[in-house]
Write a structure and sequence with these properties.
The chain has about 90 residues and is mainly beta. Helices cover about 0% and strands about 30% of the residues.
Amino acid sequence: MILTMWEVSDNDSETITAITDARIAIIKTATVDSEDDCYDTGDEVTYTFTVYNTGNVTLENVNVSEFHFTGSGTHVSYYICKQQHE
């Protein structure tokens, strides 16, 4: 029995189109600096935006801007106590 070694090569090319899905999820939270157990007029509110990349591509230079909320508004006629939400 005689064994012969054969050199094998393959020069074919194939193009694969990846399906990209660029998505983000934004969660806005608020922290209230209140002197008592209730949120009422005059309390300072700090808003925080957390941005998550929920897609399958890398995102760079993502900025969040909120244009419709100015930080001021009309008087709130009720208050919310912290115990109701804890």
